């Protein structure tokens, strides 16, 4: 940054800090290179980008208490980890709230819709981690959409028991409204619209989504490939696997599974906070 004038340096750091903050609060993805190009324009050689990013991250930490972090290391170790996350970064609120959950309630308890969405997210993440299966050369646990919808329907019978058929053309809104589980009679239903919220959670990197592999035999019998879901990098840092295990144990009134806990601790990943809270809406 010594190559820049004082005014140019301050503008670069301020512009990048503002862009990172606004993207995070809007729940948008933060791509390191794309954000640098958008905020810094032509001033984007690697040394300057890294230096400005470091200064911007310090500002966001000092002023707002948010920490700028990369994808957790244990996720990147998987050979099948999506390449699009290579330069992805996340602005995380690391304020711990281990006792009563006051901080989390203050963020998510203002709007009932937000509270319902975060509750659904926790249930989906729990199903992904506790009911999902690892793929070859992958550190994440994946659950197919058929199993996910079946399990969600078991929690709330108003949620469709099967995923939408992605191979059929979109129907008119009047025809497809039978999949909508949010109340249209005014007020807020306690049953969320799972179809649209799954898309939202994937867009916000709370979930990862991929095509399910279908065997040659199944394909020859006309079986269609669906989708599979796994915990995304944002959820790994804002929620964490340990918190999911505690959530499942509390719901089932059981002790935390020591085998799964040991599996997490073996990873020794410092970037998986397990006590951070969401900055986006």
Structure explained in plain terms:
By secondary structure, the protein is α+β, with helices and mostly antiparallel strands. 49% of the residues lie in helices and 10% in strands. The strands form 2 sheets. It has a 4-stranded antiparallel sheet with strand order 4-5-7-6. Strands 1-3-2 form a 3-stranded antiparallel sheet. Helix 1 packs across helix 2 and helix 1 crosses helix 3. The longest helix has 20 residues. The relative contact order is 0.14.
In short:
With 281 residues, the chain is an alpha+beta fold. The chain contains 13 helices and 7 strands.
Tell me the layout of helices and strands.
Blueprint: H1 6-25, E1 30-31, H2 32-40, H3 46-64, E2 66-70, H4 73-76, E3 88-93, H5 102-108, H6 112-131, E4 133-134, E5 141-144, H7 145-155, H8 173-176, H9 194-203, E6 207-211, H10 216-220, E7 227-231, H11 233-238, H12 241-252, H13 258-267
Antiparallel strand pairs: 1-3, 2-3, 4-5, 5-7, 6-7
Helix pairs in contact: 1-2, 1-3, 6-12
Describe this protein with a few key phrases.
about 280 residues, 4-stranded antiparallel β-sheet, 3-stranded antiparallel β-sheet, about 50% helix
Query: How are the strands of the biggest sheet laid out side by side?
Result: 4-5-7-6
Q: Please identify the structural class as seen in this structure.
A: alpha+beta
Helix content: 40-55%
Number of strand segments: 7
What is the C-alpha radius of gyration, as a whole number of Å? 21 Å
Mean pLDDT: 79
Order of helices and strands: HEHHEHEHHEEHHHEHEHHH
Assembly level: single chain
Unreliable parts? 168-177, 182-188, 273-281
**What general form does the structure show?**
elongated
């Amino acid at each position: 940054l010594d190559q820049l004038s004082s005014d140019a340096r301050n503008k670069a750091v301020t512009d990048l800090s503002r862009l990172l903050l606004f993207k995070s609060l809007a729940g948008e993805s933060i791509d390191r290179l794309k954000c640098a190009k958008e905020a810094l324009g032509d001033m984007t050689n690697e040394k300057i980008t890294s230096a400005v990013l470091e200064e911007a991250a310090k500002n966001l930490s000092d002023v707002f208490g948010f920490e700028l972090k990369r994808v957790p290391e244990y996720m990147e170790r998987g050979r099948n980890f999506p390449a699009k996350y290579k330069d992805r970064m996340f602005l995380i609120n690391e304020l711990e709230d281990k006792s009563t959950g006051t901080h989390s309630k203050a963020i998510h308890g203002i709007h009932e819709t937000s509270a319902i969405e975060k509750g659904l997210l926790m249930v989906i993440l729990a199903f992904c981690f506790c009911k999902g299966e690892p793929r070859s050369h992958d550190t994440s646990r994946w659950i197919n959409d058929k199993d996910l919808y079946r399990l969600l329907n078991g929690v709330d019978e108003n949620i469709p028991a099967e995923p939408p058929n992605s191979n059929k053309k979109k129907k008119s809104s009047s025809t497809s409204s039978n999949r909508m589980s949010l109340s249209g009679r005014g007020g807020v239903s306690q049953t969320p619209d799972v179809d649209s919220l799954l898309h939202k959670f994937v867009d916000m990197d709370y979930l990862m989504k991929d095509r399910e592999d279908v065997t040659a035999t199944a394909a020859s019998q006309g079986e269609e490939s669906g989708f599979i879901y796994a915990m995304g990098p944002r959820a790994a840092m804002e929620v964490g696997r340990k918190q999911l295990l505690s959530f499942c144990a509390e719901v089932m009134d059981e002790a935390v599974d020591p085998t799964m806990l040991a599996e997490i601790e073996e990873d020794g990943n410092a970037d998986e906070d397990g006590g951070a809270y969401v900055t986006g809406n």
